[in-house]
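2024-03-11 09:14:02 INFO worker-7 job=invfold-0412 stage=load source=structure_tokens
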């Protein structure tokens, strides 16, 4: 409080004498600290500000994410509502057409019915393919047994003709009655 009172008295004295006591705007004085030191301080302050900004951005992103979920849910509800309204409009239009009996006077010059072959629109073309049997689904590429490809013949000669192999190992009436190759002495040794 004493220092503040002294400053007030000094201010009044300088003012009454007409002496300048405030620093002019174009006055330059040497800094107490060096420029290098001030650069380091500036770097530290900028780092702290960057950290604060990053924290704020993350906080805003979290809030925006929550808000975005709400907005997305709202949009989905709006789309469902709009779709429902459009379906209702179409239903009303169909009902009006049914009540009017589909006559052209109620519809006007606009003909909304199909004018032409519906078969062309809704059914597959019935063009016959040359050299293809009606039940053939291979696209006309199937060939008879006399026109096999060479690669198929090679594979058949190398691997056989396919089919189930497990049936070859099953016992049949002939194989169970056949004792050729059965060695009784070897069987006795195995049982012991």
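2024-03-11 09:14:09 INFO worker-7 stage=emit residues=192
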């Amino acid at each position: 409080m004493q220092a503040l009172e002294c400053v007030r008295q000094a201010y009044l004295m300088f003012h009454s004498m007409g002496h300048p006591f405030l620093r002019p705007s174009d006055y330059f004085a040497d800094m107490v600290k060096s420029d290098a030191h001030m650069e380091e301080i500036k770097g530290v302050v900028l780092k702290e500000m960057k950290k604060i900004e990053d924290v704020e951005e993350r906080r805003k992103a979290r809030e925006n994410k929550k808000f975005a979920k709400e907005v997305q849910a709202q949009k989905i509800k709006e789309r469902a509502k709009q779709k429902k309204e459009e379906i209702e409009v179409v239903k009303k239009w169909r009902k009006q057409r049914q009540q009017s009996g589909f006559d052209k006077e109620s519809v006007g010059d606009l003909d909304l019915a199909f004018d032409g072959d519906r078969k062309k629109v809704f059914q597959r073309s019935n063009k016959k393919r040359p050299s293809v049997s009606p039940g053939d689904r291979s696209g006309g590429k199937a060939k008879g047994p006399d026109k096999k490809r060479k690669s198929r013949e090679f594979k058949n000669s190398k691997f056989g003709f396919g089919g189930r192999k497990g049936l070859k190992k099953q016992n049949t009436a002939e194989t169970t009655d056949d004792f050729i190759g059965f060695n009784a002495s070897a069987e006795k040794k195995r049982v012991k």
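2024-03-11 09:14:09 INFO worker-7 stage=report msg="The chain has a mean pLDDT of 77."
2024-03-11 09:14:10 INFO worker-7 job finished
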